[in-house]
Amino acid sequence: xxxxxxxxxxxxxxxxxxxxxxxxxxxxxxxxxxxxxxxxxxxxxxxxxxxxxxxxxxxxxxxxxxxxxxxxxxxxxxxxxxxxxxxxxxxxxxxxxxxxxxxxxxxxxxxxxxxxxxxxxxxxxxxxxxxxxxxxxxxxxxxxxxxxxxxxxxxxxxxxxxxxxxxxxxxxxxxxxxxxxxxxxxxxxxxxxxxxxxxxxxxxxxxxxxxxxxxxxxxxxxxxxxxxxxxxxxxxxxxxxxxxxxxxxxxxxxxxxxxxxxxxxxxxxxxxxxxx
Length: 276
Ligand code: BEZ
Ligand code: FE
Known about the structure:
Layout: H1 9-15, H2 23-43, H3 47-62, H4 70-77, H5 80-88, E1 126-134, E2 145-149, E3 170-174, E4 180-186, E5 191-192, H6 198-205, E6 211-212, E7 215-221, E8 228-234, E9 253-254, E10 256-258, E11 264-267, E12 270-271
Bound molecules: benzoic acid and fe (iii) ion (FE).
Residues 102, 104, 215, 217 line the site of fe (iii) ion (FE).
């Protein structure tokens, strides 16, 4: 095929995909080419702009290593991560909603017993978290594996401190026979997502702030139920309506209550979706 022009090239590229063995790959690539070409036409992309885009993606890739995933962060601030979560976690009414996983989960977090302090020295205001893991009919889910992780009072996760060699403000617990769990930690505070890379550059260029409202991450696993990846957000946080990664859902907002001794409590129940 020769003499392709701006009106005929899209069809030619799509036809070139005809021999793709994997049907799903063919569907995805066909749609990607269509949308990519439509985008270039819509904005009347110049050659300079095309090259700036290539340079931006190259720099984004160069920021990635085993501790930093700038492409996921880019997907997060463009709302693609949350869109994918929302499309793939359409649960029955009454189930706890899912939200983004985020980059700060670490495999192999320490295991704790009911009532233990998962802060393990992390700076912050002491806080007790209590709740029940239930199924959709209100049945308690015993022995659910509950992973929690959060930032400290400075808005940093333990993995963001280069010299720190033990996990802080993260841990794994199990719900009791009645589905209840209870642990001590520190109060979650709002924090900015990493903005010293290409994602930060994009946020500044588009007049956006990098803040996430205060939240506590949970991942809850139990046999015969779908794994739940979610957060509990802190009621009253100033960033609830402008989360940098679009992860807030009203049903996930919890009330951290101040106690007379200066500590806080959070009570929050989780409802798991029965497995498919
Ligand atoms: C987080 O909540 O840990 C997070 C999520 C998306 C991007 C950056 C941080
Ligand atoms: Fe987080």
